[in-house]
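During data preparation, we tokenized the protein backbone, and the record follows.
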Amino acid sequence: MENSSLVIMAGGASSRMKNSLANATVSKTVLDAARDLHKSLIPLGENGKPLLYYLIKNAITAGITHIYLITSKDTSGFNRFLETYKDEPGFSSLTVQFAIQHIPPTRKKPLGTADALQQCMDQYPILKENSFTVCNGDNLYSTAVFKLLKAERKAPHAIIAYSGHGLGFDDEKLAKFAVLAIDENSFLTHIIEKPGVDQLQSYKDEKGELRISMNIFNFTGADCYPFLVNCPINPERDEKELPEAVRNMSKANSKAVYCYPKSEKLPDLTTIADVATFKLTT
């Protein structure tokens, strides 16, 4: 079964980034990009290359040959990006295709990450026949992580279980992610979405470690698709969320989702303040 495809979710509105721009102390070039483009395209550091460039480079090094970019209807910024870096080593042999996350006529915003992946799989049915990796477009996942998820395993799905200490975030930030509960055989038993700072202590494992999902998975398409279709809408956030679909996969089969532990920093772009502190990971 083919397993060299990566789906990058980059169709969100980047609302937290845009809401942080009022008092930003960055160059006009960075400010304009943060205002007008998806945050994965904001120029970073001295060379001005965006996070998406480094993300794709890490994926290529891990053996990814085909990328699906889930975006909004306006792909102009991504088209310019691909044109700019088309001659970079590895990029010329990479196949990149767009999947548009359409907004339902009764809504003003996208229906969430589970819906985004479902729409991608509907637009590219080949994904229903193979295994593939899925990740956010605003986190810089390492080559090592991509390699872990591409490795052969008996479970149909896999997730990276990041060490809370290794990520280097404070409890307030960790509480905004999803905490993982994992059994003694490294299979996922539960995902607790945004548990709150006061509840974090109760989810630590026997080593005193929190295991955090940073929204990077590897799925077997045929097995995951029904869970995307049937994913319920979260009543608070009014979205179909990918972690909820994964939680239901685990409920249906206790050996469905294998968890790979990983301890490393994970650069991300949540607000404009993250642009100044961005550091590469390979």
Q: What stands out?
A: Residues 51-61 form the longest helix (11 residues). The first strand starts at residue 5 and ends at 9. The CA atoms of residues 251 and 259 lie 15 Å apart. The chain has a mean pLDDT of 91.
